[in-house]
Design a protein that fits this description.
With 251 residues, the protein is an alpha/beta fold. It is built from eleven helices and nine strands. An eight-stranded mixed β-barrel has the order 1-2-4-5-6-7-8-9, surrounded by six helices. It binds guanosine-5'-monophosphate (G) (2 copies), sodium ion (NA) and manganese (II) ion. This is EAL domain-containing protein.
Length: 251
Amino acid sequence: RQLEFALRRALERNELLVHYQPVVSADTETVLSFEALLRWNSSEHGLVNPAKFVPLAEDTRLILPIGEWVLREACAEATRWPDHTKVAVNVSGEQLLDPHFASTVVSALAMTGLPARRLEIEVTESIFLRDATTARATLEQIMGLGCSIALDDFGTGYSSLDYLRKLRFSTIKVDRSFVQGAAQKNPESLAIIRAVVAMAESLGVTTTAEGVETESELDIVKALGCTKIQGFYFGRPMPPEDARLLFSPRF
Ligand code: G
Ligand code: G
Ligand code: NA
Ligand code: MN
């Protein structure tokens, strides 16, 4: 395929970029972290949607070199932020099951000088479907380095609670579909967010409400007790220069 051929060249042609989306505290509305989100500006295909090229990168295993690049790029960028600010990097199953993944993380931290406690790795439930034992072992290695692990898109996959018992996630990210539902007073969405927040609290895990776009969505997820908020309401994924400005005093 043509897109695959172009993606093979994307790294060396410097066509890949990382954008950063703020995650704020529900209490103080200050920035706690940024999620790194990959973007591809292809010379042939223009801006390509990650929903399209990330799966292609996974199928072709190009996600391995690309993911390594994202990790280094994001860690390097985070060294410019205030010391308490984390960066969250998405990692696919292909990356996590790669035997070199842990050493990729070690070298990204070493090369950039970012302390491990400032790097969060985001995984989805789907990584546990293929080889849960290896996935868990690798995540434990990463946690051993001092990094934290977030469980992304919670509630949309298989939602086995088994890995919540076995792994110490630092954050559960409540999928945007529940946030939207809750703001529309959908009783099932409300009940599910309540249950997730209660479970997270008793496990000592924080919760991030994803995809908060409106004030009514913000109000409801705050009322439900989510600890962190991410979404267009506070900021879209933005170039690193713009993300840095969020730390500068405004006039
Ligand atoms: O950026 P956007 O909001 O459109 O993201 C679309 C999808 O691509 C999300 O599911 C996100 O997790 C995934 N994605 C974005 N950046 C990365 C990345 O650096 N690595 C991996 N593996 N997935 C990513
Ligand atoms: O799968 P993951 O949760 O990693 O993907 C994050 C995706 O959600 C990115 O594509 C990002 O651009 C998108 N996103 C983040 N905030 C919002 C939001 O408020 N509304 C919508 N529609 N999408 C969002
Ligand atoms: Na994510
Ligand atoms: Mn998500």
